[in-house]
Amino acid sequence: MTDHPDVVTICSDLIAIDTSNYGKAGSKGELAAAEYVAGLLRGAGYDPEIIESEPTRANVVLRVPGADRSLPGLLVHGHLDVVPAEPERWTVAPFEGRVADGYVWGRGATDMKDMVAMMLATLLRWAADATGPRRDVVFAFVADEEEDGALGAEWLVRNRPELFAGVTAAVGESGGRPVPVRAPDGTVRRFYPIAVAERGSLHMRVRATGTEGHGSRPNPDNPVVHLVTGLARISAHRWPLALTPPVRRLLDTAVRTLGLDADLSSDEGVEAVLDRIGPLREYVEPSLRCSTNVTVLDAGYKFNVVPGEAHAEIDVRSLPGAEDEQLAVIDELLGPSVTRSFLSYRPAIGAGWDNAWYDAMAASVLRHDPDGVIVPFCMGGGTDAKPFAELGMAGFGFAPLGEDPDGRTPAGMHGVDERVPIASLRSGLDVLDDFLRTV
Ligand SMILES: [Zn+2]
């Protein structure tokens, strides 16, 4: 019987394999990380499959049969790639995988090589204890999430859907982590938000047309002007506040648990509550509204030539069910000379909290922290849950971490000095193992 590395060592090892995803500028690739994952699993007696969507862009998939194979299956997915890091801005080397001061440090420590390490450590435990899950659990370690999943989750969904046969729910990144909030009476309550919905990710390209001509002549039909005035109107637009069911549920629970005197029936009342729920605010604010951000501008080629057209890209995020309404408003704001098309269109998804999957996640957290308060939330951004939803899976964000008794917290996601507390990783593993075995 070989000695398996523990979750901290695995997390550190994974960080030391640089899987930076530079987006359109390329990628380090996930192959070395995929080989590490597959090697660990083979050493424990599993038979994982490495699946390359393109050379070096690698995914690993393993199905662990459940004790009752008639039950619907569960997918647990984690991405192997990370966003790039600028080493000169860090105090530790981002791809060293240093373990020090109670933390594992490095790019991916919280997004999401921590969860990938917990998934692997769960599997190694099961092998060592000769145990396994109640239902089939498919483990997917995927490529390319930090771009758009086209070579990872989306590729698997399009090209290898049979890997997910019988799977009706998926659990992935974000959620399941303790969020301590101080109540007005001075007590601290620990909330555990679980993601049950995601805003839509609509990446839009817009095109303004007009009349080309000499830059010295009057031109009332200049497409650059049509474009920027439309974009200015969009940028100035204040999208209305709307409480979707998970957001309302979270706020109601927070108000009741903390004993706040609050009125959620007005925008001002909601804004006032945001100021009183501490770090829980981050789980509410991004999903209160639709949003639009102009991210790319592309117009003109010479100072004395008015071009015939001009382009821009807009990052549009929609609330569940609000896509059509939001697009109609965008069309009106853009004006008649500007047309739009989608670079990608992934509408919002929502699994809700009134189901056995959510109950099982909540129960696993509460077995480890009986005083915890479980709340649903809607993610402001997007994850691989969206492509997996195309196969009919209900998508959840549940990558549990426990509380560090000395008060350390995860930090630096997509920023500098990314790190995860060792104690949080160890207790998160206990929660994830418990959930995946018993669900
Ligand atoms: Zn991530």
Descriptive keywords:
six-stranded mixed sheet, Aminopeptidase, 25% strand, Alpha-Beta Plaits, four-stranded mixed sheet, 439 residues, alpha+beta
The end-to-end span amounts to 29 Å
CATH superfamily of the largest domain: Zn peptidases
* Tally of individual helices: 11
* Largest sheet: spatial strand order: 1-2-6-3-7-18
Number of domains: 2
The amount of beta strand, in percent, is: 25-35%
Which structural class is indicated by helix and strand composition?
Answer: alpha+beta
Instruction: Look at the structure and give the mean pLDDT.
Output: 96
Tell me the number of strands: 19
The largest sheet is: 6 strands, mixed
Q: Write down the secondary-structure element order.
A: HHEEEEEHEHEEEEEHHHEEEHEEHEHEEH
What binds here, in terms of ligands, is: zinc ion
Low-confidence stretches: none
**Which assembly state applies to the chains in this document?**
single chain
CATH topology of the largest domain: Aminopeptidase
Radius of gyration over alpha carbons? 23 Å
Domain Peptidase M20 dimerisation: 196-327
Family: Belongs to the peptidase M20A family.
Cofactor: Zn(2+)
Organism: Nonomuraea spiralis
